[in-house]
Design goal:
101 residues; mainly alpha; 2 domains; 4 helices; elongated; mitochondrion; Cbp4
Length: 101
Amino acid sequence: MCIGGPALIYYVTPTEEELFLRYNPELQRRSLERRKEKQEDFDNFVNKLKEYSKSDKPVWTVWEEEAEKRRQLGITAELDRRRATAAEAEKLKEEMKNSLR
């Protein structure tokens, strides 16, 4: 029983290739399209972890600090984008008013 159980599970469990071939063609196509993107994301993640591990602080602390910095930059960028959009809309409004007169 101790030897047969894991052997049975190993025999019954399908490989990644067998699972991929069971996908419908649309899922196979999407999976192949996103494979490179996923690999790049993973490589980026690993590189960041290596960079964070060089610090004296724990990795999760450095990760949270970096996330907070990105959030602040994202908020700032979002506000700048909204202000630019509002200014452009105001400019368009003025042009429309002037063209009607």
